[in-house]
Amino acid sequence: MTRDIFACRIYQGIHQFAQEQMAQMHLHALAVHATLNPNGQPWSRQNRQSLLSQLGDGKFKGLDELVRKVIVDNYACSIDQATAREVITYKGQFIPLHVEDTDLSAVYWLDTDARPDPERQNYSGAFVLVNPSGAYGSRKLPWEGWRSEIIHPKPGMLLVFPSYLAHHSHPYNGERPSVEIHFEFKVSTNSGVVQ
Fold first, then answer.
1. Which of 22, 145, 165, 191 has a C-alpha 20 to 30 A away from that of 7?
2. DSSP codes of every residue in 139-160
3. Residues 40, 90: contact at Cβ < 8 Å?
4. Please, which residues have CB within 8 angstroms of residue 137's CB and are 6 or more apart in sequence?
5. pLDDT value at 173 more than 80
6. pLDDT at 5 (0 to 100)
7. Region 78-104: what's the mean pLDDT?
8. Please, are residues 183 and 107 in contact by the beta-carbon 8 Å criterion?
9. Which CATH number fits domain 11-188: 3.40.50.300, 2.60.120.620, 2.60.40.10, 3.90.70.10?
10. Predicted pLDDT at 3
11. What whole-number distance in Å separates Cα of residue 69 and Cα of residue 126?
12. What single-letter DSSP state applies at residue 117?
C-alpha cells in the first residue's frame, strides 16, 4: 500500500474591509509599531502585548471576528487563546525563518507595495511557508511537492496555517511599508467533529 501522509491545511483568501476601516487599522498598526518597536525591524518588538487588548483601541475587532470565523469554519476547532500584533516591513527588511510556539497562525495584509518579478527570481515581499517533510534546504524526492510555498501578498489577503510550519519573507522592495497583522491562536478540537 502506498499513501501520501502529513498534509497541512492552509487557508488563503481575500477579505476586504471598508476603506475607512482599513485605513484606521493601518494607521493604528503603524503608530503601535513606532511606539513599541524602537529597533524598527519587523521581528524585533520587545513584548507580546496584543492588538486585541486595549492597545488595539477596538480597531481590530472586525478583523479578529473574521479570522476567528475562518478558523472555526475551516479547521473545526475552538479558539482558547488569541493574540495579534503588528508587523511592519520597510524597504530592504524581511522576516527571518522561524516557527511560532502556538497552534495556528494567521497573517492579514492591510497594505503591501512589493514589486516582485518571479520570472527573474525576484520574490520581493513574498511570504514563504516551508514544507515540513524534510529539513530546510534538503533535496526533495522526485514524487514530493516543492519545499516552499511562495505567497505574493495583496491588501486584504488572509493566510491561516499550522504554527509548526517554518515561515519567512523575502526582502521587501516596496516604497510604502508592508503593514500586516500577525495572529497566534491556541485551539482545542470541537468534540464530535471528524476531519
1. 191
2. PPPTTS--SEEEE---TTEEEE
3. yes
4. 147
5. yes
6. 67
7. 95
8. yes
9. 2.60.120.620
10. 72
11. 25
12. B
